[in-house]
Structures are given as C-alpha cells and as structure tokens.
Design goal:
Blueprint: H1 2-17, H2 31-42, H3 48-51, E1 63-68, E2 77-81, E3 87-90, H4 92-102, H5 109-112, E4 114-115, E5 123-124, E6 128-138, H6 140-144, H7 153-171, E7 178-184, E8 189-198, E9 200-206, H8 209-212, H9 216-219, E10 231-237, E11 251-252, E12 261-262, E13 271-276, H10 287-316, H11 320-349, H12 352-368, H13 371-377, H14 380-405, H15 408-413, H16 417-425, H17 428-440, H18 444-447, H19 452-469, H20 476-485, H21 490-500, H22 506-514, H23 518-523, H24 525-569, E14 584-589, E15 593-596, E16 599-601, E17 604-606, H25 608-613, H26 625-632, E18 647-652, E19 664-666, E20 672-679, E21 697-701, H27 702-712, H28 716-721, E22 724-725, H29 732-736
Parallel strand pairs: 12-22
Antiparallel strand pairs: 1-2, 1-6, 2-3, 3-10, 4-9, 5-9, 6-8, 7-8, 9-10, 10-11, 13-14, 13-19, 15-16, 17-18, 18-21, 19-20, 20-21
Helix pairs in contact: 4-11, 10-11, 10-12, 10-14, 10-19, 14-19, 14-24, 16-17, 19-21
The structure holds arginine.
C-alpha cells in the first residue's frame, strides 16, 4: 500500500518537476514572482536578490547595453563586465564596427587582431556607449492615466509619448540618468528603465577576423560553428566614477559587480542563464502577419540586401582598403538577408502560420461565446487579415523605390529639389536661400569611405532590379523614360547617369554649385530618376502608413484579448513580453538537437573542427598559422576539457535574439561559461514562435575565449585581471579520508 502511494506521489512529482523554462525573455524585476522556483529546480544556486537588486550589487550590474551616443533608446548588442577594472567582453561581430573604424591598411585590426598590453595602448572606440541598468519600474498606471475612450489611435499615441517624455525627464535627475520607457505586450503595459550611460569605451583586444569571424557568412546562423566570436573593451569614468566623455585623465570604472569566469565547462542538461538586451521578437504575430512577412516583406528586403552584399563582396575581396571600408556595412546586410532567407524557409517548414491559426481559431471560439467579448474583439482578426492584404499590395511600392532613391548620384540629386522648386517659383529670395543652402551641404561626406567602381556597379544593378520588378503601370514616368530615351535598355540609363550626371562625382557637384542652373538639374538623368522614384514611393506611402497604423492598433487589441483568453483558459501559464531592447533574462540548459531524421548534432564542438574546415587563403575559412600550430600540438593549457580537447562553441536552449549578441551565458553560480552569439538555422522561425525541440543558442565557450587571449595572443596582462574559477573535483577523496 505504502509502496503504491509512493509510486503515485513520485509520478506526480516528476510531472510537476519537469520544468521547461527555455522559452521566454523575462523581466528581471519579476524574477522572484515568475521564475525563481523554476530556476532553482533547474539548478540555480543564487538568490533572487543576488540576481536583481536595486539596493545592493547584483548580477544585473555586470550586464551592459551597447549603443551609440549618450542617450540611446535601444541597444545593438550586449556586453558583460569581467574585472574590477571594468574589462568588458562582447562578441567580435558587436565590436566589428569599432574595430573597422580603428583599422587602416597599415594597422588592419580586422585582419590581424589587436591586443593592448597596457591601459595606455587601449584605443577609444568613438561613439560607442555602455549602459548599466540602475532600476526599472512599472509605469503603466501613470501612462494610462492620460488616456480616454474618445481618443483616436493617433491621439492616444501622442498622449502616451508626451506622458512618457514627462516621466523620463523627471527620472533623469538632471541628465544624470538616461530613462527609457517602453511599451510591452503591444502597448498593454509600460515600463521605465533607468540607465547610467558611460561614453568613454575603449578597445582592448580582438582576435583577427580569421578567428573572430571564422566561417564568415557561410557558417553564419548555423551549427556546428567554430567561431571565436569575442572582442574586449573597457569602460572608463571620471575620477568619481561618473560617466564622462573621453579624456586621457579618465580611469577604468570600478563596477558594482563583475562576473567570475569558470573553467568547468559544460555537460548536457547543465543549467544555463543568459542576461542581455534582445532587440525584437514577434511572438504574438498572427498567421496573417506571418503570411505577409513570408510572401511579401522578407522577399523584398532579401533581394535588395543580397544584391548589395554580392556586389560589395566582389570588390572587397580584391582590395584590402575596400574590404575595411565596407566590412561592417556588408556584415549587417548579409546577416539580415540570410536571416530572412532562413525565416522564409523555416516558418514554412515548422508550420508556424498553421500553429498560429489554430490558436486564433480557439481565440475566436472563446470570443464568440460571450456577447461582450464579441463587441470588443469580434472584428480584430478579420481587420488584421484585411490590413495585411493591403500591405501586401503596397509594400513593394514603398521599399523598392525608397532604396533606389538613396543610391549614388540619384540620392544626391534629391538635395537639389528645393532649389528647383524655388527656381520654378521665380522668387528671387527663395532662389538665393536655396543656393545658400546648397553651399552649406558637405557633399564630400557622401563620397567619404566609398569606392567608385563598387558604387557605380551598385547603381547599375539596383536600377536593373527595379526595372525587372515593376512595369509601366507602377511607374509610368520611369518606364517611358527607359523605353523612349534609352530604347528599353535600363543599363544605358544607368551609364548615362554615371557618365553625364552633374551629381556623379564630388568635383562635378562642386563645379555645378558654383554656377547652379535649375534647367540643368531638371534635365539631369539622376534627378529625373530620383523624381520618378519619389513619385512611385508617394503613391504607396499613404495606404502603407494607414495600414501600418491599423496593424498596430489591432495587434494591441488582439494581445489584450489574448491575455484575457489565457488568463481564463490557462491561468497557470505565465506570458512574457516580446523583446524590445530592454534587459531580459532567459534560462534553460545545455542540450544537443536532432536537426533532421537520422541526424544528430552534439552540444559541443572542438578545435578539431577548425582544422576540418580550414581552407588556406579562403576569405572565410583561412586560419592563422599560430592557431593551427597550437591546435595540432594540442597545446591548450588549462583550457582543455577532461579529454584534452579544446571546446570551441556549445549549445543551450536559452531564448535569445539579435541584440543578445555578446550576452554572458552563466552557470548555476552566475559564473561566465561563454558568450551567446547566434541562433541555429533550423529554428530561424524562432523570433515568431519558439521551437523547443529545435531552437538553440550558439555560444562561444569561455575556455576558448581565454585560450585565444592567453595562448594565441599572449595577452597575459588581461588574463591576470580576470577572476578565473574552477570547482574542486568531486568530494570522493574527502569522504575516503
Ligand atoms: N547571426 C549573428 C547575429 O545576428 C551575427 C553573426 C555575425 N557573423 C557573420 N558572419 N556575419 O547575432
């Protein structure tokens, strides 16, 4: 009898005890209420207070939001503080823009890496800022207090923006802090995040791209991955520890908390936790929104960005200076088009729209069971369906001409519109003012850090893409121009711009501004094309904007209804808000996965894979000789695992997205075990629907990071600064005593 009872009890316990917390980007402020019980069950050994406290130092104080400027509204990446002198780790691809800006053909840190051997050698990363979260608070009530039922959606948004600005100003304490209020659950809740922003950030170290970007865009978004995706910065402050602009007098900031680094490595099922600044997810997107993305929006952006990166690639590989010029721009575009390609594939393959439609059907059933709900939510899904249909019609007419209108001489010619309008009015004062304004524009800026052959090809190819995408009905002016003046040859039009436009080179522009002539502008082929593009764009813009606003309003309504639906039908379910570039926490475990039938992927990869992938001379798969030698000699020092292998990257089930790049992945004691840097191909649909079976975070192992700093670069000055920890081996011997 007793036995049976125990058996039943155990069975129940194992059900309750089976925690699947992987999904969710949680607000740290609610950790105790929503997540702590789960996290403890999964192995966490810290208290809620040690994770997030506004009174005492806590783990959150080691997490850094990376941005540009002193008053950012969001963060492009995450970093973590790892020493008492505010040494900061982030990804190589996060530091990439700074490394590029600091590189020249003579000092090519992108290609060769960089290691400061002393504070004096560290290089100011101009424009980069490091934000620390001081506190966060729920401001929903204050925000909602200024709203009423008679407001239109636009009036409502204006009122919210005004109230948010007022609350932010009050919380800034005379600009000491940078408070940011963000909407959550599609504007159904509002939170304020108060940050302290440090603007003196310096580059301390980076591996060469052949380590930091090993595998390039071919391996990007994929596992197995052998990328040492890390770079090292330091945060500086004035003598009092306050934020200050760059000055040689500044001192390394003494942080409230820094992360110890563990040499223990990972085992399957180990607890993992990631803190950082995920940028955007759309977990509450409807099936209609998904169809729009897959059928319309992603293909447009994908095709434009892919075309642009292919052209950049062609010239970058031929010339080191061109490579430096375009490196960051190209990496961003390539990262996006490959992401969209993966999303198109995997949203279909993982049947995400079907999953959402099922939920929508259940939601509709719930709505229809109650007249009050029908009144409030009865139309929301139909409205969204209709509105996405409108967007599908007009989106191409907004995006394509917009990108063409920004290209080379076409883009520059746009600056002459005001002058032409003034000349047509024959108003002498207006003409003089417009001429003055032209003289005030620094046109050199448009040509700085550009390579003419590349830019010229871009213009030709963008016009070709546009011409092949649209017909005379969409843009009669442009079509007639090509047919009549250039006999149907769009390349002839492009060449006419390159050879004859007044706006094609800095010299021709300067000469033209000396003796401006409105008639000549009107006849300039770049200007004519620019106008045709603007007209096309304007034809789609009003319906596009109106539709976007309707989507906004109805997404707000849908999520409001969905939360009520869940609260009534699944009260035990905690919902988490979409990513919006605010500090989040996600916890899970180290796990392998099966990407396809009969295929199994390990949760770690080793340096042996670097040798397997190595292609001498290849721009993505070449490897520095020194790294080859160390790997071949298995000279890994204390960074080897128990089998003498060097683990390079590992997988975990944490729920992250872009913006989390550089985030610390930590063990149950809050020690750094790696840096998150990517997601995997099979779950590229994951920003819209989390896929527990398939979705993994790709992390670079902390031991590989330290190995590169120590053994590869010999930067022992940095190793000495770190708090490196290793657990005692199991207690068996002690017991035997
Ligand atoms: N996919 C990564 C992310 O979005 C960026 C990786 C950068 N590497 C590259 N080869 N482009 O976080």
């Amino acid at each position: 009898m007793k036995k049976t009872f125990l058996f039943v009890a155990l069975a129940i316990f194992s059900l309750v005890g089976k925690v699947h917390a992987d999904e969710g980007m949680w607000l740290p402020m609610f950790v105790e209420r929503l997540n702590y019980v789960d996290m403890e069950k999964m192995g966490l050994q810290l208290t809620p207070e040690e994770l997030y406290s506004i009174n005492n130092s806590s783990l959150k104080d080691a997490i850094v939001g990376l941005s540009e400027g002193a008053t950012p509204r969001g963060f492009f990446c995450t970093g973590e503080i790892v020493s008492q002198n505010s040494l900061m780790f982030t990804n190589h691809h996060c530091g990439y823009g700074s490394i590029q800006k600091l590189s020249t053909v003579e000092h090519d840190y992108l290609t060769d890496g960089f290691w400061a051997r002393s504070f004096e050698e560290e290089l100011p990363a101009e424009g980069i800022s490091a934000s620390f979260l001081v506190r966060m608070e729920d401001v929903t009530e204050q925000i909602f207090s200024v709203l009423n039922d008679t407001m239109s959606w636009a009036e409502r948004n204006q009122a919210i923006a005004a109230k948010a600005a007022e609350l932010e100003a009050a919380a800034s304490e005379d600009s000491k802090y940078n408070p940011i209020i963000k909407g959550f659950f599609e504007g159904n809740e509002y939170y304020m995040f108060v940050y302290q922003v440090y603007t003196d950030v310096r580059l301390v170290g980076t591996p060469p791209s052949s380590i930091g970007k090993f595998g390039g865009d071919t391996d990007n978004w994929m596992w197995p991955r052998h990328t040492g995706d890390f770079s090292i910065f330091r945060v500086y402050a004035d003598a009092e520890g306050n934020p200050a602009p760059y000055s040689p007098e500044n001192k390394p900031l003494t942080p409230k908390h820094h992360l110890p680094i563990s040499l223990d490595g990972v085992q399957q099922n180990d607890f993992t936790m990631i803190w950082g600044f995920p940028g955007t997810t759309e977990r509450y997107l409807t099936s209609y929104g998904i169809d729009y993305n897959v059928e319309t929006f992603y293909p447009i952006i994908h095709d434009i960005f892919k075309l642009q990166t292919d052209i950049m690639d062609e010239f970058m590989q031929k010339d080191a200076s061109v490579n430096i010029m375009y490196a960051d721009n190209k990496a961003g575009l390539a990262n996006t088009w490959k992401n969209f390609e993966g999303q198109m594939l995997m949203l279909r393959k993982n049947k995400v729209a079907e999953t959402k439609l099922e939920l929508e059907n259940k939601f509709s059933e719930w709505v229809n069971a109650d007249p009050a709900r029908v009144e409030e939510y009865g139309n929301v899904l139909n409205t969204l369906a209709e509105t996405y249909a409108v967007l599908s019609e007009v989106s191409a007419s907004v995006y394509f001409p917009n990108y063409v209108a920004q290209t080379g001489a076409i883009g520059i010619s746009g600056a002459f519109t005001r002058y032409v309008t003034a000349a047509q009015s024959k108003d002498k004062e207006a003409i003089a003012a417009a001429e003055e304004a032209l003289k005030g524009i620094d046109f050199d800026v448009f040509f700085a850090e550009t390579y003419k052959p590349l830019e010229d090809k871009m213009l030709v190819e963008m016009l070709k893409l546009y011409y092949n995408t649209f017909n005379a009905e969409a843009n009669p002016n442009f079509y007639n121009l090509v047919e009549k003046k250039y006999k149907g040859d769009v390349v002839a039009l492009a060449n006419d711009i390159l050879e004859n436009s007044n706006f094609a080179t800095p010299e021709s522009i300067k000469a033209f501004i000396e003796k401006p002539n409105a008639k000549k502008v009107e006849k300039d082929p770049a200007y004519i094309v620019c106008n045709a593009m603007v007209n096309h764009l304007v034809s789609g813009l009003a319906p596009y904007r109106a539709a976007m606003q309707t989507v906004d309003q109805n997404s707000h309504l849908f999520v409001k209804g969905l939360r009520e639906f869940y609260a009534e039908t699944q009260p035990e379910k905690s919902l988490y808000p979409d990513a919006n570039s605010s500090l989040r926490m996600t916890y899970g475990s180290v796990q392998d996965y099966q990407p396809a039938d009969a295929v199994s992927y390990d949760y770690v990869c080793t340096a042996n894979g670097i040798l397997e992938k190595y292609v001498p001379g290849d721009y993505e798969f070449d490897v520095p000789q020194r790294l080859l030698d160390l790997i071949e000699a298995k000279d890994f020092g204390q960074y080897a695992d128990e089998n003498g292998e060097l683990i390079v990257c590992f997988l975990s089930t944490n729920d992250i997205t872009g913006g989390n790049s550089g985030s610390p992945i930590m063990n149950s004691r809050g020690e750094l075990i790696g840096l998150a840097f990517d997601g995997n191909w099979e779950a590229m649909s994951g920003d819209i629907n989390f896929e527990p079976r398939l979705q993994r975070t790709i992390n670079v192992d902390a031991r590989y990071v330290l190995f590169v700093i120590d053994k590869f670069a010999g930067a022992t000055n940095l190793i000495e600064e770190l708090t490196i920890v290793k657990s005692e081996p199991a207690t068996e011997e002690v017991v035997a005593e």
